[in-house]
Structure formats: structure tokens, C-alpha cells
């Protein structure tokens, strides 16, 4: 058993007869009244995100997890197939287990969390950022750079991302996987 001071992003807890992963949290200490923790919880089974507030010191039932590295192989519709990088065993997960499946490209290495009690996969953690190639982008209009103007570009995985006007087809860009936003043009290595 843990309490609210142990809450952190990515922690898996049992709540209302389901297992939830903490997506966001905020410790609040108002001037009057007791402190509390405002959280955003994502259901591992359904993928639904709920808001919940825990009072300070509230006991929470944390789930012991184990993480392993897996490489993304391919997807066929709603099912995503991964291979363990250590023993080459393969598993298939539903799309709801992934936070940003549209940013996942073949060969990408992700971290999968497993419940230590029954070895069931709980969630897939993407790397902090991914490098993707732009496959479609409208050309930037000259003189339209007075403000922080953006345009929509389609990357190799099919995701649509707002990018600055100077990004063209064939450029590689770095994308933040937490919110799917453009970070920077990828450096050639």
C-alpha cells in the first residue's frame, strides 16, 4: 500500500475494481482546508481517461510492475505486434494499450509494463521523442513568417502534425510522443 505522496507519472494503481495508470498529477495545498492530489488516470483495460482527486494521505493500492524492452514489428488493424529484444518472444496488444499509436513506426523500441502478479501487459511507454520523415507538406508561402505560422504535414506513419513553414517533404523531424507536437528538425547523423 502506498499513499498520495508516492503518486508519480506512470504509476499503476488499483482504483474502482480496475487498473489505472497515472497520466498527470498535481499536488494542491490551498490556503484553507486540507491538501489534495488532482490526477488524470487512464484505464489499462478500456483506455478511458478519468479525472480523480485524492485527499492528502489517502491510501492507494499500487500495482507492482516490471518493464521490458520490445521492438515494434507491425500492426494489422487494431492489433499491434511486438518482439522482446532479449528472448525474441512476440506478443500482440490492442491499440487501446498504446498512448500514441499513430507515432509508432516499424523497428521502434518501446518499454512495455507487465503486472508482476499475472504477467499481463499493462501499457506501452513510447520513447520521449521519435524521428519521423515528412511524406506530405504544402510548400511554405514566402512572406508569411511574421508570426509563428504553422502548416499541417503528414509523416511516414500517417500522423498529421503541425510544423513550421520551413519544413518540406523529405525532411526528418523530431516529434514529442507525449502530445504529438513538433520539437525540431532532426539533425543528420
TrEMBL record:
GO terms for molecular function: translation elongation factor activity. PROSITE patterns: EFP. Pfam families: EFP, EFP_N, Elong-fact-P_C. Residues 67-122 form the Translation elongation factor P/YeiP central domain. CDD domains: S1_EF-P_repeat_2. InterPro entries: Elong-fact-P_C, NA-bd_OB-fold, Rib_uL2_dom2, Transl_elong_fac_P/YeiP, Transl_elong_KOW-like, Transl_elong_P/YeiP_cen, Transl_elong_P/YeiP_CS, Transl_elongation_fac_P. GO terms for cellular component: cytosol. Residues 130-185 form the Elongation factor P C-terminal domain. Keywords: Cytoplasm, Elongation factor, Protein biosynthesis. It is found in: Cytoplasm. Pathway: Protein biosynthesis; polypeptide chain elongation. One of its GO terms (biological process) is peptide biosynthetic process. The keyword Zinc-finger does not apply. Involved in peptide bond synthesis. Stimulates efficient translation and peptide-bond synthesis on native or reconstituted 70S ribosomes in vitro. Probably functions indirectly by altering the affinity of the ribosome for aminoacyl-tRNA, thus increasing their reactivity as acceptors for peptidyl transferase. Belongs to the elongation factor P family. This is Elongation factor P.
